[in-house]
Amino acid sequence: MGTVLLMLATFMGSIAVPNVSGAPPIDGTLSSPLWQRASLAHLTYDLRTHGPAAESTTDYVMTDGTYLYVGVDAKQRIPVRALQHTNDVGLDTDDEVQIDLWPNGTAGFQYVFIATPLGTHYQFSSENTSFEPTWFSAGKVVPGGFTVTMKIPLSVMHGSGGGTWRVQFARLIEATNNDLVWSYGTSQQNHNDINYAGMATGLPALTAFHAEPRIGVYALGAVAAPSAGGFNLARGCRF
């Protein structure tokens, strides 16, 4: 019996992301027929209880090769917590849905995109501590839960792999601290742990990250006269 329970509590997800033509509206609803073309991911495990999720969450995922589109249908029996209206303010104070992406697998950067039931959003990356790309999200609180739609530009991420990404879908319910995930293992403690992330095929291989040469920019600024926009060395460094 113990072996059977252990097997039931382990699921390494795999999802084929369809490439579609046409972009779904990012309006916080899943009513557009375009969402029916998406692949589905069900968040069935709760890291807080290490058991089946008590609430239903379905993620819809597709791409047009330029953007990644994510829709979330989140059922919730207790009141939805949704107070924040300003992006990048008040992280982890509202209910949230999240997608974690590793375009280059275990050897590359992690990118995290989070949205609340109102569509207020946050983002993080191991590539850059000031990661603040332009992306889009919208959410609506509806009877019995909420829905969220996201539009994430693939160009803001970097990787040099062949198109097989690691991915995790997660949802946080703030009032109860429930932490729901799609891909999981019995020893998992954190939804950001790549060791338990699933596989996603169908997403493109991205360009590798190359740091911008900074010494050349500094030299040009240093030799120019202050009146021409040059930098006064006595005041310190720009970078």
Description:
It is a single chain. The chain is mainly β. Helix content is 7%, strand content 32%. It contains 2 helices and 14 strands; from the N terminus they run H-E-E-E-E-E-E-E-E-E-E-E-E-E-E-H. The strands form 2 sheets. Strands 1, 3, 4, 7, 8, 9, 12, 13 and 14 form a 9-stranded mixed β-sheet that branches. Strands 2-5-6-11-10 form a 5-stranded antiparallel β-sheet, with no helix packed on it. Strand 8 and strand 9 (121-125) form a beta hairpin. The longest helix has 9 residues, at 215-223. The radius of gyration is 21 Å and the shape is globular.
Number of strands: 14
Beta-strand content: 25-35%
Taking pLDDT < 50 over at least 5 consecutive residues as the criterion, the unreliable ranges are 1-7, 213-239
State the share of residues found in helices, binned by percent.
Answer: under 10%
The average pLDDT is: 86
Number of distinct helices: 2
Summarize the structure.
The chain has 239 residues and is mainly beta. The chain has helices at 2-8, 215-223; strands spanning 14-16, 39-42, 45-46, 51-52, 57-63, 67-75, 96-102, 111-115, 121-125, 136-142, 145-153, 165-173, 178-181, 198-201. The strands form 2 sheets. Strands 1, 3, 4, 7, 8, 9, 12, 13 and 14 form a 9-stranded mixed sheet that branches.
